[in-house]
Write a structure and sequence with these properties.
two-stranded antiparallel sheet; 25% helix
């Protein structure tokens, strides 16, 4: 670790510790994105940094694509872990996925990191179920053939 000291009175009066190899700081969230192009990335999409009111750090997972994510391609696990570790090394405090089908790899990626990992919006379903009246239904809008029982299980549903 290296220490950086602030000397001006308007700046924080404490050490800022950065691990060796960390080149950025202050990112609350790291976002893993597919190496596919989906245009446009409107505000509200995780691939648009203006969606967030705080600093985020995007990482395109080279070699990933929608087909690999949908089909639980085991080669994608190592690519996601490499990308997630790079974000962790840059100081992000949590990681999310920019593709709901990344949920197929939730357990492996979360186990490989020291910070919280939320690879799919489908991870929210168990919390939502517990927050609404019993017997109510939840709608998930997606390509229906891709919403497999394995994907739901991987997301705790």
């Amino acid at each position: 670790m290296r220490s950086v000291y602030f000397r001006e009175s308007s700046l924080p009066d404490h050490d800022l510790l950065l691990p060796k190899g960390q080149h950025t700081a202050g990112y609350a969230l790291g976002i893993l994105l597919l190496d596919d192009f989906f245009w446009p990335y409107m505000p509200g999409d995780v691939a648009n940094a203006t969606t967030f009111g705080f600093p985020v750090l995007h990482k395109v997972v080279k070699g990933s694509n929608l087909a690999k994510a949908k089909n639980s391609d085991r080669d994608l696990v190592s690519l996601l872990i490499i990308g997630a570790r790079e974000l962790q090394e840059q100081g992000v405090r949590a990681i999310i996925g920019g593709c709901g089908f990344f949920g197929n790899f939730q357990d492996e990626v979360a186990a490989a990191l020291d910070i919280p990992v939320f690879l799919s919006c489908l991870l929210q379903i168990p919390m939502i179920v517990r927050s609404i009246k019993p017997g109510r239904k939840i709608a998930v809008f997606s390509d229906v053939e891709s919403l497999t029982p394995a994907l739901f299980r991987a997301c705790g549903v």
